[in-house]
Design goal:
The complex is a heterodimer of chains A (about 475) and B (about 350). Helix content of chain A is about 70%, strand content about 0%. Chain A has about 475 residues and is mainly α. Helix content of chain B is about 50%, strand content about 5%. Chain B is built from 14 helices and 5 strands. Classes of the chains: A mainly alpha (about 475), B mainly alpha (about 350).
């Protein structure tokens, strides 16, 4: 059940109505927890056990870390949390990758090994909720958080359905205090949430889902397209992945908001970033901040010398790439972003940017950043390394033998992107809606929803980040 | 109380907007049926006879031959084949609903509604745009009644009802209503002169025999029945068909309503509805019983291997469901002769 499906609307309506009809805080949380598990069970009920294991391990570890008197005991318990969560992730997500890579490496050395027939299903959302539960234990270990007061709170923090399967990765320090408050419906910014949900729906169902077949056709046969079409194909993929992922985040944040829980934004117009560092402050903010706080800084961050800092940056981005998928193409994607971050640091260090006029720094920086991001997206999407190289031939060398073009498709795609940027601009539209009289908003929303639905693609396409 | 008012306002605005949008949006049928409907909209006044049905109709009715034979038999017809693969009674009704608005001179409408028990197998395909197209509330209600009336496990019924309601929700929401415009903007699947011939046939009369289908790119040979085991399996099915008798019991209302609805629509359009059962592997018991009880007036049957053995000969068939060119010509000839006799009988009636 994905957010753009009609049955999700019915599901959410039931959850919403019962949630606000219940008066007691504990009853509301129990109801949300049951609904969250039911939502996840709709994907695959067998993997509920993994969520329960992750929750139980971090409940135990969090309590023990907080109660432990000496540092070595604290380290042991946080290690338990990391081993359990990363162990699940490694088994279900990376085992095939490690085995295949090992066999390929042995083959390079001349050893012929047969591939074991491993058919491990990737549980939906495992990358998200394991990172979420690890952040709980790590925050307690670092002294930034006290353990959850009740198991119910922790269970709901881990399993909260709006963000369970594809983020945003919520920090315990943010959500646990919210779970302790019994909110009133009057505090909910209903209109902002409804508009945010609609914007997310337009991004996913009207823009992303409509261009997916064009993008798929391009990446299935990149040599069949001319140079201009190759550029357009990559750009449309950039639009597709942004609208798909940020659309999901918008809908998740809107659903959580309607239930009284304000989650932090996960995308802040990343394609308007003026530098690669700015891009990572705007794209998948919950992941990039997680990587910064729990990987980059513990590795040493920028507290050592230049090379030490660059090592930490590269490691963080390579692992960040690997988080997205068990494949070398994702590692390359992460590596390209790492290289860009290193170069950016060098340029900043040498103060080269100050030599340029401000408008060149801003516009040129945005154009260069977007160009590099799109280049890296090629590895994220291409089905094989060879296909990625074929696309890059057009992208970098302006060489392509193919005859096919896209016509007006890229223009319309970017018009759609411009529209959702305008609608989502600093949530001004949502804030504006809060000022309308209730009856006027109801009528306006009643006009906007059918308009948006009529442009929806109609066929159910899973969110791209569900595969992570 | 205020919340209830806002909900009512929202629902009312949504309903009015979605109905207003529906009036200006193009159809969501398959590309083929949309091509045919567009053709009929432009050229409908040229035709007084249409054939509606599934791929059996699409491949099996040859309009040019039909018109020539009926003219020789003393009945002038100008016919068009509006058959499309996968089409059933509900889609046929929707097509009639749409072409009713165009200017036309229709006198005869042949309909092969196909078996209704396909509704027992509804699955996620219910979200295909061509299925959403015919899921208006009334049709959805009738389909639901049919499903409830069937002898199936309760869970299966609930699953079918859920899929049905889901499609109806998409229909009311006009999803994906702008598909044609979006496809055109994105350069997908544009209907142009070249693929019009691919879809409507060389004579642009809607007939596309299997052996000349450029999409299939097959030669005219009986490849499906070349293998002995395939031929034997087919002949066993034909033998079973010979002994498959329609029982004496009445037709269920929930089934008959689909045929009556189509007949009434055609009569409202000023034409005569003639139901046809083409040579297939299973009996259309509902339609046969409906005709027996007088709920369907005219029915021409070609589903009995004893009555029309040549239509079941492997050399006249493409596969167990469809006729080859030779079979299509035979079938069209039989239909023309039976139609001419029907017209004679109608003229003799007081």
């Amino acid at each position: 059940m994905i957010f753009t499906e009609l049955r999700f609307v019915f599901f959410f309506l039931v959850v919403f109505c019962v949630h606000w009809a219940l008066r007691g805080l504990r009853a509301r949380k129990l109801w949300l927890l049951v609904c969250s598990y039911a939502f996840y069970a709709g994907w695959d009920w067998r993997f509920l056990s993994l969520i329960w294991i992750s929750t139980a391990v971090d409940w135990l570890a969090g309590g023990k870390i907080h109660a432990a008197s000496d540092q070595s005991a604290r380290r042991r318990w946080v290690a338990l949390s990391l081993i359990a969560n990363l162990g699940m992730l490694a088994t279900f997500k990376y085992l095939n990758f490690f085995v295949d890579s090992g066999i390929d490496f042995l083959a390079l050395l001349g050893f012929d090994t047969s591939r074991p027939a491993l058919e491990i299903v990737l549980p939906v959302g495992i990358s998200f909720y394991t990172f979420q539960t690890m952040s709980y234990s790590l925050d307690i270990y670092f002294g930034r958080l006290k353990p959850a007061r009740s198991f119910l709170d922790l269970a709901l923090f881990v399993g909260f359905f709006p963000q369970l399967v594809a983020g945003p990765i919520v920090r315990a320090a943010h959500l646990l205090p919210l779970l302790r408050e019994n909110r009133a419906f009057a505090d909910v910014r209903v209109r902002s949430c409804l508009i945010l949900f609609l914007v997310g729906f337009v991004k996913k169902a009207c823009i992303s889902d409509n261009v997916v077949s064009i993008v798929d056709a391009f990446f299935a046969n990149p040599t069949g397209y001319d140079v201009l079409a190759s550029w357009a194909g990559v750009l449309m993929w950039a639009v597709q992945i942004y609208c798909d992922f940020s659309g999901y985040s918008d809908m998740a944040i809107a659903c959580a908001g309607l239930l009284g829980y304000r989650l932090l934004i996960n995308f802040d117009f990343p394609y308007l970033a003026c530098s690669i560092r700015d891009f990572w402050r705007r794209w998948h903010i919950s992941l990039s901040s997680w990587l910064k706080d729990y990987l980059y800084i513990p590795l040493g961050g920028n507290r050592g010398g230049k090379l030490f800092t660059y090592r930490n940056l590269m490691l963080t981005m390579l692992l960040g790439g690997l988080w997205h998928g068990a494949g070398w193409n994702f590692v390359i994607w992460g590596g390209l972003h790492g290289i860009a971050l290193v170069v950016h640091r060098e340029v900043e260090r040498a103060n080269l940017l100050a030599l340029l006029p401000r408008v060149v720094r801003t516009v040129g920086g945005a154009a260069l950043t977007f160009w590099w991001v799109c280049l890296a997206w090629v590895f994220f999407r291409a089905q094989t390394f060879e296909a990625a190289m074929q696309v890059l031939r057009s992208w970098l060398l302006f060489e392509s033998d193919g005859p096919r073009t896209f016509g007006m498709a890229p223009i319309y795609t970017f018009a759609g992107l411009a529209l959702v940027h305008m609608l989502g601009r600093r949530h001004a539209v949502g804030r504006g809606m809060e000022r309308l009289p209730g009856w006027a908003f109801a009528l306006l929303y009643g006009i906007l929803v059918p308009l948006a639905l009529s442009f929806a693609n109609g066929s159910v396409k899973p969110f791209i980040y569900f595969q992570f | 109380m205020r919340a209830a008012i806002y909900i009512v306002l929202f629902a009312g605005a949504s309903l009015l907007t979605s109905r207003a949008i529906a009036r200006v949006l193009p159809g969501r049928g398959t590309t083929l049926i949309e091509t045919k409907i567009a053709w009929f909209e432009k050229h409908g006044a040229q035709y007084d006879t249409i054939f509606l049905g599934s791929s059996r109709c699409y491949r099996g009715f040859e309009p040019e031959l039909f018109d020539r034979l009926t003219a020789e038999l003393g009945v002038e017809t100008r016919s068009l084949n509006l058959g499309t693969p996968g089409s059933r009674a509900f889609e046929t009704y929707r097509v009639l609903d749409r072409i009713e608005e165009f200017g036309h001179d229709l006198k005869w409408v042949f309909v092969d509604p196909e078996r209704l028990d396909w509704l027992r197998q509804m699955d996620e395909d219910m979200l295909r745009s061509s299925y959403i197209e015919w899921h208006d509330p009334l049709t959805t209600w009738l389909v639901s009644r049919y499903v409830v009336d069937q002898d199936m496990p309760l869970l299966d019924k609930l699953s079918r009802l859920r899929a049905n309601a889901h499609s109806c929700g998409y229909h009311l929401g006009n999803i994906p209503g702008t598909k044609t415009y979006v496809d055109r903007a994105l350069g997908r699947d544009i209907i142009d002169q070249t693929n019009q011939i691919d879809r409507l046939g060389e004579r642009l009369d809607g007939w596309l025999p299997l052996s000349r289908d450029t999409a299939l790119q097959r030669e005219e040979k009986n490849e499906n029945f070349n293998l002995p085991e395939r031929r034997q399996a087919y002949l066993s099915k034909v033998a079973k068909l010979r002994v498959d008798e329609t029982d004496e019991g009445p037709v269920r209302d929930s089934s008959a309503v689909f045929f009556e609805r189509i007949a009434r629509k055609i009569e409202d359009m000023g034409a005569v509805p003639i139901f046809v059962i083409q040579p297939g592997m299973k009996r259309q018991h509902d339609l046969i019983k409906a005709h027996r009880e007088g709920r369907v007036r005219y029915l021409l049957r070609y589903d009995d291997p004893d009555d029309v053995p040549e239509l079941f000969e492997p050399q006249n068939r493409w596969d167990q469901h469809h006729l080859r060119i030779s079979g299509a010509k035979l079938f069209t000839t039989m239909l023309a002769e039976d139609f001419a006799r029907l017209c004679e009988a109608l003229e003799r009636q007081p």
